[in-house]
Amino acid sequence: MSDILVLAHRIPFPPDRGDKIRSWHILKELARHGTVHLAAFADDEADAAHLPALRAALDGRLGEAHVEVRRTGRAAAAARALVQGKPLSLTLFDSKAMHGFVARILSDHPVSTVFAFSGQMAQFVPKRARLVMDFVDVDSAKFEAYAARGGVLAPLYRREARRLAAFERATAARASASLFVSDAEAALFRSRVDLRHGDVRALHNGVDLDFYDPAAAVPAAPRPDGPLIVFTGQMDYAPNVDAVGWFAEEVLPAVPGATFAIVGRNPTPAVQRLAEPGRIEVTGAVPDTRSWLVSADLVVAPLRIARGVQNKVLEAMAMGRPVVASPAAFEGIDAAPGRDLIVAESAAEQAREIRLLLADPVRAATIAAAARRRMEDAYRWDVRLAPLAGLIGIPQRQAAA
């Protein structure tokens, strides 16, 4: 059986943030079909130290692995990007050691397919190798959205969008398949890239329904006297920072008596300044976000800039929580608005829907139960990742064996 080389811009373990959740489940599924070698970056030494646990979790199915702490600063990467005419997204991740490891693995092992997770990793794949590219999201479109909001960084965002779009087109042109997290992202990419013979498709996210289970024995987070509204996410991620700031300023004032909990690691100074005793709680990292989900009267996802599928929404729905999401946060989720969750756009609309749910516990419980059922029906990881075997060249009969 042939080997598979997986490249990831962040070590796929533990699966405790959106990108790691997807990359971990993909890595685990690929390891079912052959020896998998891994080349990945890590945010810091603590992140890199998760490699032994990852190896143990794969139970002997991981071959060689290279996990490298990414040390290139943004200023140095930006200077290099300007000189080389490349996107900053690439120069931030460029590494001679990573190039060397990939070249050696392809030379020493019978690798049939390179699976690259996130566009930055395509730069390490030689043209002779068979590539399956998991872009996940259309990153160039994200930078276009940043630029459209104006500000002093808008010219840099526009440059990044242009350069990254060109790189995405070139990568998709040589890939055997280009994957995206949703049908909407795949359709957006097709509309931007003229690939007459390219295979561009969605590989949908799932959710761990055994872990995110409302019946699980999870200690509940402390509840305030009034209603509790919860947002979960990585709190140094710009779209999340924007979302909670906008919600706190524009929506929460129209929901009297409620407490808003911002739950997630690495809150930026801007997020920390939102904290207000009895009204807004900024938790930072927590041992288990499920504790806050089970305590929540409802969960919000008020993102104004979003790409792909929001795992935070899937997880809240799996936990049987009523969710109020913006259209951007809902995009790509296979569920029925009004039945499985509430979708509302403006601040006034979100505030009104939140007040209505808080005032009608029976309706909130009905939506919460429908949300869990929808996750059970459509979002199991084994179902979502079933196409992977064919993408890496495993016949369906052999994959099912």
TrEMBL record:
<dbReference type="Pfam" id="PF13692">
    <property type="entry name" value="Glyco_trans_1_4"/>
</dbReference>
<dbReference type="InterPro" id="IPR050194">
    <property type="entry name" value="Glycosyltransferase_grp1"/>
</dbReference>
<keyword id="KW-0808">Transferase</keyword>
<dbReference type="InterPro" id="IPR017521">
    <property type="entry name" value="Sugar_tfrase_PEP-CTERM_Stp1"/>
</dbReference>
<protein>
    <submittedName>
        <fullName>TIGR03087 family PEP-CTERM/XrtA system glycosyltransferase</fullName>
    </submittedName>
</protein>
<dbReference type="GO" id="GO:0016758">
    <property type="term" value="F:hexosyltransferase activity"/>
</dbReference>
